[in-house]
What we know:
Layout: H1 3-15, E1 20-22, E2 43-46, E3 51-55, H2 56-60, H3 65-77, E4 83-88, H4 96-112, E5 116-122, H5 125-133, E6 137-140, E7 162-167, E8 185-188, E9 192-194, H6 201-215, E10 220-223, H7 229-237, E11 239-244, H8 253-260, E12 265-268, E13 283-286, H9 290-302, H10 307-338, H11 345-351
Parallel strand pairs: 3-4, 4-5, 5-6, 7-8, 7-11, 8-10, 11-12, 12-13
Antiparallel strand pairs: 1-9, 2-3
Helix pairs in contact: 1-3
Amino acid sequence: MTLAQKNLRAKMNEAFKTSKYELFDKLKHSYFVGPFPEKFPFSTLDEQSGIHMSHTNFITKPQFKSSRHKYLPTYLNSFGKKQTVFLWQFGPFTDNKGVASLTKSLKQLNQLVPKLDIIMCANDIHSRNIFNDLGLSTILCNHNAKVKTDIFTIDKNIQAMWDSVYIASITPYKRHFLSYDLNNICYIAGMLRIDAKRRNRADIEELYKEFCGKIKNNDSTLFIKRLYPKQVSLINNMSKVGLCLSKKEGAMFASIEYLLCGLPIVSTRSAGGRDEFFTDKNCIFAEDNAESVKQCVDEWLNNYPTIEQRQQIREDAIALQEEHIGRLKCKIKEVIKEQGGSVDIDKILNSREINNGQNTKTKM
């Protein structure tokens, strides 16, 4: 990469503005480990073949507008030939509003960089069909496929102290209220998110106060600051059951983190792709009410998997990760062949990070 290209990437990094974060009162436990720098979500995988990685948030969210409008076209055009961007699916895109937003953003990106091929990495078959119907080149490759298996592991020497764990920012779509019948639960809530213009401050404050009021009489622990992935893996190993309670989101990084730590899951039905990794051996589906969630957690606790069964939960998840990444590798090799290149894609994928939000911090 030339010095000019490196400078452009540096400017894109500077232009990327994160949302503002606010902290409120804490409950029993609160640990802070930081700082947590935001990593720019546009990665050049291979300069020779013009292959890049990004995700749908980068092309749809307003906090990335300056980066993608002011610097991205110049950066991509500086390579002097056609470029290809693989876009991981972040979000459900299951309703008309979501599809319209994505379509509009892709059209704008195409206007900014006309000589750009976009390949969607869909989280599940339903999403793949939606992208195909939009005329987009698409592969089935869930974004949870690249979560690191050497960070989230089973530690046989740790004894569980929580019956369940819920890794989820305190925001409405995470539906914490479905967990209010549970005792001995650990919440990893990251940081409370107030948008850049503080428009949602009152809503988040009210939601947080309600949350604290509901769980104060439960035997619960709340981590209200960001933790490193290794620490999240430790807490997963100190818990017995992982919770997934949203109705619509993306594939939910926490769901694969649970599975890689060998935790069985209680999940509600959700659009966006997280159930791509769920089977009748690792997940019980609950109805959209707190009583059902508690019943499902109790069902796991009363018939808890052995360490061998937990290991199988992990191995099955890894096998499916490899299947999804195999499709990604095949598609990248296809692009390289079309470009007339001869790059060792396995070496590239193993030596460089494919940014998925898991490199520097846990994503809620």
